[in-house]
Amino acid sequence: MEHLAKALxxxxxxxxxxxxxxxxxxESLLKTIEKMSDGLTKASIEAMSPIGRSCGKxxxxxxxESQPFVTADKELKSYLVSQETPSIEESGTYTGTITExxxxxxxxxxxxxxxxxxSPRTAAEILDPSFRLEKNNIYIVAxxxxxxxxxxxxxxxxxxxxxxxxxxxxxxxx
Length: 174
Description:
Blueprint: H1 2-47, E1 57-61, E2 68-73, H2 74-83, E3 87-88, E4 92-102, E5 107-112, E6 122-126, H3 129-133, H4 138-145, E7 148-157, E8 163-173
Parallel strand pairs: 6-8
Antiparallel strand pairs: 1-2, 3-7, 4-5, 4-7, 5-6, 7-8
């Protein structure tokens, strides 16, 4: 009976570990699916940008078929655009590391320091005049040295209140 009790206890312990690992994997997969669906919604809206400007509708066909399997018109475009209701927050101070930088366009991607490793990088636009006027400005120095900066920015939020873009007006070293 003692051996049976130990075997049962060991099995229950292993099942508990498997369940915890399974739960972690499921949570990770759900986060990935959410990120992918957000990206697909934005891509769908972008793909429909010609509707109403240069065309009335867009139809997609399967090879060899004469009937479209999907048609996007002004009504569908309006519906998808209405689902995307971004808002701009007041200026705040954030700390992060610039992971990508386009010196000509003034765009970049930032990893916030207080985010976990699974958090996506956030797009940003540098509006600070020093970025264009100074050759070795804080943004370029921080990017090339992989150093964090403290920056002041307005943030654009998606419908769920998540930051999707920063508009940076000032920065200083951390």
